[in-house]
Task: inverse folding
């Protein structure tokens, strides 16, 4: 063989030998072998097709199955819930770059039980990431071996080696979202008032490490409210417990959630629509957001929603009391000419929209010099949507927020109470639900983060 070239047959045999050794000894780390150059990296696409023959898990009804998949315990994926079926069809896609070719795909299947703290475990299986269609038998616990059959298909291509070592197990889409909604008014008190729908959104972002590198924003030790959450002692410990319980309620996984895929910025704008006198319109509202350090998700809700009153930090609520996030702040949509110049007679489709995003978060105090990275990350994920990133001290930011709220009040007829975190008498709020111990707490977690050499496959 010419100098500097490997015998393809030898490489093939090496991969086969290593894979056999790996299955005999789970301590073999595929990433370590790939970074040493013993095996190669691949960009893979997994199509989770569906399953059949699942067991009936409840006395009444069939099953509400979903699955949790992971690659070597380094990055994971959580599917949508399929209601009342023993033969679910998902047809969901998961793309991951820079995966060692000897990696394993591990899948666990569950039955969602709304209103219970834990979901029923159906079974699991493991397959290699080699390309091809795959049919796997789902193995249940103990003697319950046959729990159905799962179908999937994997395709792959060689990775770009200039990025593979630095960014292994890099999530590459599709950009999935879930919307979690709560009907609140009078739910506990049976008030006759019309229900209002409070929503939280979670969007899984591509390429977060490419833009933020090793930058994380830790909780702000100079901020009194943050000290009351993250500091030492029984008070902060109790506060964290309440906030984490609220987080689980907000992001609970259930068949009633809305799931989908965003193909660009126009789809994000669609998510921000709400009922108005002239039909579904982009809502002039301000949203609180965080970009999670644990799963690279973009999580947000309306800043003024009364449902979240009594929580010291909405950013901590969205982050599940994480001590650090990738970034946090607020954002609002606006027409490119501003809300002050907007003509209500125009349809939203005739308007060019932009997203104004900032670092207004006392809990994490994100660094101003990362606003450029934030803008580029959001433009990468929401193509076609202009992103305007402003520091919280920028006068133009305050003017834009005021114009947004003025339009909501003066043109859309939004009540002033809806723009401030103020609950009406008798209104069901999140802290009330936590205090009475509501248990719809199985969180919708799709973990797209590479954790170095520490495997993480559990759900938050």
Result:
């Amino acid at each position: 063989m010419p100098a500097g070239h490997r015998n393809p047959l030898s490489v093939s045999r090496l991969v086969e030998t290593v894979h056999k050794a790996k299955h005999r000894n789970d301590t073999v780390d595929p990433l370590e072998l790939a970074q040493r150059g013993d095996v190669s990296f691949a960009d893979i696409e997994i199509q989770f097709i569906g399953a059949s023959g699942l067991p009936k898990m409840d006395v009444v009804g069939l099953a509400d199955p979903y699955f949790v998949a992971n690659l070597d315990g380094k990055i994971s994926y959580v599917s949508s819930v399929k209601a009342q079926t023993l033969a679910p069809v998902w047809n969901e896609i998961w793309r991951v770059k820079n995966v060692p070719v000897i990696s394993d795909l591990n899948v666990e299947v569950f039955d969602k039980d709304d209103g219970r703290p834990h979901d029923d475990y159906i079974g699991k299986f493991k397959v290699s990431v080699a390309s091809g269609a795959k049919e796997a038998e789902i193995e249940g616990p103990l003697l319950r071996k046959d729990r159905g059959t799962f179908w999937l298909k994997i395709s792959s291509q060689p990775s770009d080696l200039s990025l593979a070592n630095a960014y292994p197990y890099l999530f590459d889409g599709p950009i999935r979202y879930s919307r979690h909604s709560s009907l609140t008014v009078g739910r506990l008190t049976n008030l006759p008032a019309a229900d209002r729908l409070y929503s939280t959104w979670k969007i899984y972002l591509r390429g977060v490490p490419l833009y933020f590198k090793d930058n994380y924003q830790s909780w702000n030790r100079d901020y009194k409210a943050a000290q009351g959450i993250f500091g030492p002692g029984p008070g902060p410990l109790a506060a964290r417990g309440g906030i984490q319980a609220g987080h689980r309620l907000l992001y609970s996984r259930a068949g009633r959630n809305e799931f989908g895929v965003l193909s660009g910025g126009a789809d994000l704008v669609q998510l921000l629509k709400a009922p108005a006198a002239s039909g579904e319109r982009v809502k002039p509202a301000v949203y609180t957001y965080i970009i999670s350090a644990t799963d690279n998700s973009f999580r947000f809700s309306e800043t003024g929603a009364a449902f979240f009153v009594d929580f010291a930090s909405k950013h901590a609520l969205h982050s599940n009391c994480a001590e650090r996030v990738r970034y946090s702040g607020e954002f609002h949509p606006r027409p490119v000419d501003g809300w002050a110049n907007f003509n209500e007679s125009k349809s939203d489709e005739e308007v060019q929209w932009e997203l104004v995003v900032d670092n207004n978060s006392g809990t994490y105090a994100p660094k101003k010099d990362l606003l450029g990275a934030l803008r580029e990350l959001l433009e990468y994920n929401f193509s076609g949507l202009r992103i305007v990133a402003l520091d919280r001290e920028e006068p133009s930011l305050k003017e834009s927020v005021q114009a947004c709220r003025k339009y909501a009040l003066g043109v859309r007829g939004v009540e002033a109470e809806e723009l401030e975190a103020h609950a009406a008498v008798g209104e069901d709020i999140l802290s009330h639900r936590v205090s009475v111990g509501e248990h719809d707490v199985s969180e919708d977690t799709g973990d797209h983060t590479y954790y170095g050499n520490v495997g993480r496959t559990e759900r938050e």
User: Anything to note?
Assistant: Residues 8-170 form a domain with the Immunoglobulin-like fold (CATH 2.60.40.150). The mean pLDDT is 83. The chain is about 20% helix and 30% strand.
